[in-house]
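I'll show a sample.
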Amino acid sequence: MLKLVIGNKNYSSWSMRPWLALRANDIPFEEVFIPLYTDDKADKDRILSFSKAGKVPALIDGDVTVWDSLSIIEYLSEKYPQVKLWPDDRARRAHARSISAEMHSGFMPLRNECGMNLHRPVGAVDLSDDARANVARVQEIWADCHSRYGKEGPFLFGAFGGADAMFAPVVHRFRTYAIEVKGEARHYFDAMMSLPAFQEWTRAGLAETLVIERFETV
């Protein structure tokens, strides 16, 4: 069985992405949880025992190890083509991969100013101009996908797929920091909030008791 090494569900947005790709598509896997930022050498050594990158998530498939959320999603798309993590149509697939890569490498102001923390009481913060631009761009992506593909399902390309897994943590950030989601983008936000796998991750994150002080400053 596949093993997915993840960090704290309350904080680890990168872990959430491949976890959702697996759970939402009913792909069986064993979850290996390693708490992050505990200053415990044993925890760090456990992560290194799975991946020399020293970070989560990591996917273990027999003698194959894949790390980095987007790489894991790509691996899963090849191993389970029937799941269709990427659209069949080449143009749509290119679109899905492009917005996924944009999320993977961008939006740093939003990430820095609205860290993932499910425990945080819902409430707005003053965002920089750059973070507000990130918010607008995310909603532009969601609205554009809904206008193009919304008749085929509630997610970015109809059915839940790899691009949705990449954008899922942003839904939590918008919720936690009371960021208004407008127009056609709202359809996507509501669909993700209603996804059973998304709700399962949320419940588990809220049940965690470990507090990482460095992430409690916002």
User: Anything to note?
Assistant: Residues 147 and 184 are 7 Å apart (CA to CA). The chain has a mean pLDDT of 94. Residues 90-201 form a domain with the Glutathione S-transferase Yfyf (Class Pi); Chain A, domain 2 fold (CATH 1.20.1050.10). The chain has nine helices and four strands.
